[in-house]
Amino acid sequence: MDLKNKIAIVTGVSKGIGKALTEQLLDKGAIVAGWGMNRPDIGNQNFHFFETDIRDAAMVEAAFNKTKNILGDEIHVLVNNAGLGYFGAFEEMPLEQFREIFEVNVFGIYYTCRHIIPVMKKQQYGHIVNISSTAGQEGMAWVAAYCGSKHAVRGISESLYKELRDFGVKVTCVYPGSTKTDFFRNSPAVKPHDNMLKPEEVALQIVRALETSDNFLTTTIEFRPLQPKPKN
Length: 232
Known about the structure:
single chain, 232 residues, alpha/beta, Rossmann fold, 7-stranded parallel β-sheet, 38% helix
């Protein structure tokens, strides 16, 4: 896909991978609708921010309608980047935290895709990117709920790619390892450090997947830090 003048929606746009990806898409000439809780510091005229709580189906629908009203009926790229995790023993996790993880990480994808998929099917063209995690490929201690939600993202993505391929719509699932973002703000033990992946490098690989030719599909992308432990 030539990204110049293409319409892209990125969720969780306020910081981290979402913000880095938005900046790279804008550099490629794309027009980006950023859906998030807080407006990022991006001054590009091709960036349009729509305040959206991805957990709220009505807010997502409103963001979708506003995006179409301002940017037109075509949508070429959707990146479901918004994500959330809490750390702790499974049986001790408060119900509201468990529910919030699934509302953001799983239901958020449903809320966006149910509006975007019909547009892309009609166009016979488009690319959906869902951000999972290496926690969506294996179980990890102290993040069972997060792992469960990201396994759900994996299953949804694999099903969607098979449902949508005959409509000319691509679906890619991305599995980053530990990335230097504020994801770890809820972790008492793990803090961001320089041996984690850089959001800008993760974003670059997503852009490269988007730029492949129309009949070239990257179904999964996995990256991990080579040496994940912090340097002394």
